[in-house]
Design a protein that fits this description.
The complex is a heterodimer of chains A (about 325) and B (about 300). Chain A is an all-alpha fold and about 325 residues long. Chain A folds into 2 domains: about 5-55, no CATH class; about 85-315, MetI-like (MetI-like fold, Orthogonal Bundle), CATH 1.10.3720. Chain A is built from 16 helices and no strands. In chain A, helix 6 crosses helix 10 (about 180-200). The two termini of chain A are about 40 Å apart. In chain B, helix 2 (about 20-50) packs across helix 14 (about 265-305), helix 4 (about 70-75) packs across helix 14 and helix 5 (about 80-110) packs across helix 13. Chain B has about 300 residues and is mostly helical. The two termini of chain B are about 20 Å apart. The chains are: A mainly alpha (about 325), B mainly alpha (about 300).
């Protein structure tokens, strides 16, 4: 290469381009050295599993390994479609997910709009501090808190019910209450933290817009309606696209902790089912579990691309 | 924040109309209600944890400790499993976070450079993992085949680089480090390594703080999923798994309750212990959280610029 570096006249345009490219790569070789470990990590821990996901189309057995196990095509997928678990698991996942989305999406926006109206600094920062706090509590502790708070004998709700002369409810043991407890405890935990991003966007709205609106006699509510909300739209849209794309990724951690034999009919979701089939059942079925997981992954990918496309068409805002 | 302030002061000079005053009052009421709803469960848990077992079991505790007692805490302090979990969690959080932050920074800096050939492709390869993954079992198989199952490595190595964190770090480098600075270092004869070490790293302090917090809290301290699937050995369990056993699965070492003879008191202690444990497990994060809160906010803001 060194000898070629002298400007020869006999080289074609494409050779010249390739050579320039090589020079740019060589000039930055140290940057590639920095990238080396992260790329190795990415291949080993993120892309090797994608290659391994082909066992969804095989009948995997540890003795034969990934490539050696017999190819069965879509048999594992067909098995899942025909399984009695298929319908409840899909329905539970979708219901829990969309319920969380519908309840969890607007509330941080409302909280941010409301906080943005507060002038008193101390009050504002106290409310922020308190509402962010639950975000930092771990899922295990949150679910543990739910069990204690809603305990039919020693819980807060029981104490309250007794004081009012009512029968203490046993919500944690009631399958009908599972979804509401799951969703609203999630809202309780995340609304403050979810509002941060909207507050940040609100602080970037041009103040002259508000000044002009005040001169024109707009009320606060009107200014929220015509200035603040349109200002939040792009961010809200991006976040909505992202959460819709993750609609099948219902938090394994929390659902699994809240599961009990009593509420399994409404609490079994794709992620918990994949875990049980793959790593917990007496007869481990890696291929079947992987097939269900892969199905979820592909539907999720299609979903996020579709929603992003729709968001771009409808609102001219999108993630990419 | 400066623009925010001037806007506030301008509004202050304008007389609020009747409608606006009603609106502001209901707005304040709304925020007070929300804050109360957030605080209520927290206050209840803390109060119960400082009450006596008898008061807890009789359902007397609401918002203030009844028959103040530290019995729950004393019982926890004698519980070896909890302390072992604590120590393990600190280990995983400390070394895991160092690994995450280093990997993220050394990946993000090259990817923030416009003159890097292949930048778009490599960035996409990282971001794609946010949209699609091989799944639980294939990832488990990789960890198994590397011989990491049931070792401390399994809690650290697979976490590596979070795509969202990588994205905000790339954005940070792009928006805060002018290309002229890197060019100037090059003209001065600095290699890329040298530039990275002497120019970039000192400027990267704010983002390193943000990353440390994101990884420490979200990837390590508060999660139990990795431990659930990769660890079998009790001695390696992080705190969250121990908490799960006691809080959710209700399995409390009988030896912890051995001093208490009365069956009812023993049942009461069981519940009291849970309240105290919830408090003990959340205290470390709750203590540092007010100090680091602004970093989290900053991180979210960098993320929102994109």
């Amino acid at each position: 290469m060194e000898t070629k570096a002298k400007r020869g006249s006999g080289r074609s345009a494409s050779e010249e381009r390739a050579y320039r490219l090589w020079l740019r790569i060589r000039r930055n070789w140290q940057l590639y050295v920095l990238l080396f470990l992260p790329i190795v990590w990415l291949i080993v821990f993120r892309y090797a599993p994608m290659y391994g996901a082909q066992i969804a189309f095989r009948q995997y057995s540890p003795a034969f390994g990934i490539e050696g196990s017999p190819w069965v095509g879509f048999a594992n997928f067909v098995r899942f479609f025909n399984s009695p678990k298929f319908e409840p698991v899909i329905i539970n996942t979708l219901v829990l997910s969309f319920y969380s989305l519908i309840a969890g999406f607007p509330i941080p926006i409302i909280l941010a709009l409301s906080l943005n109206q507060v002038k008193a600094r101390l009050f504002r920062s106290s409310v922020q501090m308190i509402t962010y706090a639950p975000h930092f509590i771990s899922t295990v502790v949150i679910v543990g808190m739910l069990f204690q708070f809603l305990h039919p004998r020693v819980g807060f709700t029981a104490v309250l019910a007794n004081a009012l002369g009512l029968n203490a409810p046993n919500w944690m043991g009631d399958p009908g209450a599972f979804r509401h407890i799951f969703v609203w405890s999630g809202v309780w935990q995340e609304m403050g933290f979810g509002a941060i991003i909207y507050l940040a966007v609100l602080s970037t709205i041009d103040p002259s817009l508000h000044e002009a609106a005040v001169v024109d006699g707009a009320s606060r509510l009107q200014r929220i309606r015509y200035i603040d909300i349109p200002g939040l739209m792009p961010t809200a849209m991006v976040l909505l696209v992202l959460s819709t794309g993750r609609v099948l990724e219902i938090s394994f951690e929390k659902v699994y902790l809240m599961q009990s034999p009593l509420n399994l009919a409404v609490s079994e979701v794709i992620n918990t089912y994949v875990y049980k089939v793959g790593l917990l059942s007496p007869i481990l079925d890696f291929s079947y579990s992987t097939a269900i997981g892969l199905l979820k992954g592909i539907v999720g990918l299609v979903l996020i691309i579709a929603v992003n496309h729709a968001a771009r068409r409808l609102t001219e805002n999108s993630v990419w | 924040m400066a623009t925010m302030k001037s806007y506030e002061s301008n509004i202050n000079t304008v007389n609020e109309s009747y409608i606006d005053r009603i609106f502001l009052m209901s707005n304040t009421t709304l925020l007070l209600v929300v804050t109360t709803i957030i605080l209520l469960p927290l206050v209840y848990i803390v109060s119960a944890s400082f009450s006596s077992a008898e008061a807890v079991i009789a359902g007397k505790v609401t918002l203030w400790p009844v028959d103040f007692s530290l019995l729950g805490y004393e019982t926890i302090f004698e519980h070896k499993k909890v302390w072992n979990g604590f120590a393990n969690s600190i280990f995983y959080t400390f070394f895991g976070t160092i690994f995450n932050v280093i990997m993220t920074i050394i990946a993000a800096y090259p990817l923030s450079r416009n003159d890097l050939v292949g930048r778009r492709f490599i960035t996409f390869a990282f971001i794609f993992t946010m949209l699609f993954s091989g799944g639980l079992i294939p990832t488990y198989m990789v960890v198994r085949d590397l011989g990491l199952l049931n070792t401390r490595w399994a809690m650290i190595l697979p976490t590596g680089i979070g795509p969202f964190n990588l994205l905000i770090t790339i954005t940070f480098f792009r928006t805060t480090i002018p290309p002229e600075l890197i060019e100037a270092a090059r003209i001065d004869g600095a290699s890329d390594f040298r530039t990275f070490r002497s120019v970039i790293l000192p400027l990267a302090r704010p983002i390193i703080a943000v990353l440390t917090l994101f990884y420490a809290v979200n990837t390590h301290w508060n999660t139990y999923f990795q431990a659930l699937i990769y660890l079998k050995d009790q001695d390696l369990f992080p705190l969250q798994i121990v908490l799960r056993e006691i809080l959710i699965q209700n399995s409390i070492d009988a030896s912890m309750l051995i001093d208490v003879e009365d069956l009812v008191a023993r049942e009461g202690l069981r519940d009291l212990l849970k309240f105290s444990l919830i408090v003990v497990a959340s205290v470390p994060v709750m203590i540092i959280y007010p100090f680091v809160q602004r970093h989290f906010v900053k991180g979210m803001m960098i993320g929102s610029v994109k």
